[in-house]
Amino acid sequence: MIVLGLTGSIGMGKSTTAELFAEAGLPVHSADAAVHALYAGKAAPAIEAAFPGSVKDGVVDRAELSDRVLGDGEALRRLEAIVHPLVREAEADFLTRARADGAPAAVLDIPLLYETGGETRCDHVVVVSAPFETQCARVLARPGMSEERFQAILEKQLPDAEKRRRADFVVDTSRGIEDARRQVSAILERLIGTRGGTAPVGDGEKR
C-alpha cells in the first residue's frame, strides 16, 4: 500500500484537496480531525494539567489554548509532547485498517508534515499550493483572523516555496475545484493506475 502524505500551508486548500482524494476512493486520515477528537477525550486531562483552565466541560477550549501557546515556543513544545504521540497512535491504527481493507493507497493529511519530519512515514508527498495573494485573501477572510495572527502562523510553517521544492507532486488550487480534481486524478493515475472517479487526467506533476 502506498502511503501518500498531503500537506500545505494555511489557506492553500489542503482540506478541500483531501476531500478530492476521498472522493476518488482513497482512505484519508486527517491529523486535524484526530486532534479535535483527542481534545474532546483522551488528551484533555493532560492538557488541563499542563495548561490549567484550558479545558471546559471536559473539552479543550481551542481559542484559549491557542492564546496560551501561539508565539511561546516552550509552551508549544509542551503541548506537542502531549498531543503528537497520540496523533501518531491514531495514524498507525488508520494505516493498519487501510492495509487490512486492501486499499491501494492511503492519504495522511498532515498540516505540519515537513516541520515534524512526517515525510519519513510517507512514500510520496503532495503539497497543496496557491499564489501568496490567494492565500492571504482566503486566510484573512476567516472569522477572528488578523494579519498579526496570520504572520505568527506562517512563522512556524516551512515556506511554501520550500514545500513545493521538496514535494513529489504539487496541486495548485488557485484555478478552481474542477482543475484541482483533474490534478488529483493525474496523481492517482501516475501512482496506482486509476484516475479516481470520472474526472479527466490533468496536470498533477511537480512544478
Automatic annotation (TrEMBL):
The protein's Enzyme Commission number: 2.7.1.24
GO cellular component: cytoplasm
Binding, ATP: G11, M12, G13, K14, S15, T16
InterPro entries: Depp_CoAkinase, P-loop_NTPase
Pathway field: Cofactor biosynthesis; coenzyme A biosynthesis; CoA from (R)-pantothenate: step 5/5
Enzyme class, spelled out: transferase
Gene3D superfamilies: P-loop containing nucleotide triphosphate hydrolases
Cellular localisation: Cytoplasm
Reactions accelerated catalytically: 3'-dephospho-CoA + ATP = ADP + CoA + H(+)
GO BP: coenzyme A biosynthetic process
Signal peptide: none
GO terms for MF: ATP binding; dephospho-CoA kinase activity
Superkingdom, taxonomy of origin: Bacteria
SUPFAM superfamilies assigned to the protein according to its UniProt record, in alphabetical order: P-loop containing nucleoside triphosphate hydrolases
Alphabetically ordered keywords of this record: ATP-binding, Coenzyme A biosynthesis, Cytoplasm, Kinase, Nucleotide-binding, Transferase
UniProt family annotation: Belongs to the CoaE family.
Protein role: Catalyzes the phosphorylation of the 3'-hydroxyl group of dephosphocoenzyme A to form coenzyme A.
Protein's name according to its UniProt entry: Dephospho-CoA kinase
Organism whose genome encodes this protein: Jiella endophytica
Name of the gene encoding the protein in the UniProt record: coaE
